[in-house]
Amino acid sequence: MTTLKNDRLLRALLRQPVDVTPVWVMRQAGRYLPEYRATRARAGSFMQLCTTPELACEVTLQPLERFDLDAAILFSDILTIPHAMGLGLHFVEGEGPQFERPVASPQDVARLGVPDPEVELRYVMDAVRVIRRQLSGRVPLIGFSGSPWTLATYMVEGRGTKEFAKVKGMMFEQPAVMHRLLEVLARSVTSYLNAQIAAGAQVVMVFDTWGGVLTPRDYREFSLRYMEQIVSGLTRENDGRRVPVVLFTKGGGAWLEAMADTGCDALGIDWTQDIGEARRRVGDRVALQGNMDPCVLYSSPERIKSEVRTILDSFGAGPGHVFNLGHGIHQHVNPDHMKVLVDAVHEQSAAGRQGRAAKTR
Q1: Is residue 234 part of a domain?
Q2: Active site residue 77
Q3: Which of these, 21, 171, 244, 257, could form a disulfide with 349 (CB 3.0-4.6 Å)?
Q4: pLDDT value for 360
């Protein structure tokens, strides 16, 4: 077993006691950091940054040098799987990811196969291995993937979208084709995450970025069903430890109970949900991760500290909380404000525990 100097995240995700509430932030290695922008410029392109393990390691570790974070998250992209399927992923400045060969027909779906994580996605696994070595047990490493529905959205649309016309058109008009696409993606995500775990990821997270655009019926059929399939197929113990699984559906607050029923260990929640109410709904079945509005980081340090207090108070006493934003940190946030957030979570949660302990004496 690898000795972890800081295992707060793993303990909190498994609803075990911790000394302070652990905190990490989605997209914590990213454009808001000047050192990230320097590394990105040196790499020459975003894809080169993602596919060079040493550079991916460098940017993964950058926020840990600035902030007292309780986890590192693998620097990669959610679209690595469709890229490995041969769809021609590239990034256009100011427009985001695009595919040269989007999925538009049953024949396109039939041509897709499950990528070998140690062949087509070897650069990700090598990055995981390099990061684990460089971390030397400092904090746990989080691996991740996009959910099948979210990956399918980009693959069918060919790029980001606000209307979801093509992917929902396929879902409504050709549901059998959509299910075939989601099935191969579910198998691909399961294989990909298990390979990350074998390479050294100590937590894995599934980002269902676009599940919230579906109706309750369609969410259960086209998104949740496949995330449950993934959870059931994941390696849940490695290196002598439980490997927690976190599911996050942006805009998915209506389905927390159903998500908790998948067998995952924790749910990420966005800022549109009150975390105390979410805890009441799911009870002690899962831990909760979240959920400050990322835009709070544009406000003053005092306001950031106040919002941290509100969220900690709303969650209340007891185990099972990982503090995070309700989605990724924005690129124009002042890094000093990130430090205020991280320090406030640790300081206020420690003070809260000490206060409750004093009351019981």
Answers
A1: yes
A2: yes
A3: 21
A4: 53
